[in-house]
Structure prediction request, 297 residues.
Amino acid sequence: MANNRKSIYSALAANLLIALTKFIAGAFTNSSSMISEGIHSTVDTTNQLLLLYGLKRSQKAPDESHPLGYGKELYFWCFVVSILIFGLGGGLSVYQGILHIREPELVTNIFWNYVVLILSLVFEGTSLLISSKEFNKTRNGKRWWDSIVKSKDPASFLVVFEDGAAVAGLVVVMILMGIGYYFHIPELDGVASVIVGLILVFVSLILARESRSLLMGEGIAPETREKIIKLSEQDAAVVKTRNILSTYQSPEEVVLMLIIDFKDHLDTEEITQAIQRIRETVKREFPLVRFVIIQPE
Prediction:
């Protein structure tokens, strides 16, 4: 969680520094793509605040109404962030771009636009390096895409995606704005805005997919299931593990239920002792499994 906050704070600082300058530059130079970039940075700033709020809420202690805690608050707010990126970031950028393609205006004072874009690229690039470095610490040698798909902590890669989309958008705007200005094709400024919007839509769909899966109760990986089955069946009292039910309450908390067939000759006390042994073994081997419910078959 500490690593998540570090990358989120760096992204928040970068977006706060550049959002206002983008809007000022866009209004001053009649650039729709700069306005789109300003919208992008504003949405990103809001997203970082929502992620920080989600992280704080997810660590709230269990109570009577939520006996398993509030861990899934993080997944909910990550899903909200993906919706904001889609609607406010992608949707408004595409709309702004289409308006300027239909009614193009030649960009003026392009020098100041490039000053803002280059500074933004430096800030966003720095934030991307920090968030990528923090995400690399969680990959454990896996490929990037495999790590994202298997990750149970969407906040860890959400900032990477946002920063990556920001850097890609800035590069697109710099290229198309320059070409449009040099060859007097003002429509390219609107095209750049549309491309920025489509990048954000693509990112939002990936984030929504991963957040939705976790919010709906995604369980442990198949290989982890197999290991837990072997651990439980190593106990002398167990005949067979009939089923495993699991769900991630948060990136650091798993609820696990085992349905186990115990040997017929065991009495209640022996079964209770076996349940305690299996519970301790599983929790010792898998620290993320905080709750282990064992149901005799």
The chain has two domains: 2-215, 222-296. The mean pLDDT is 85. The longest strand covers residues 238-250.
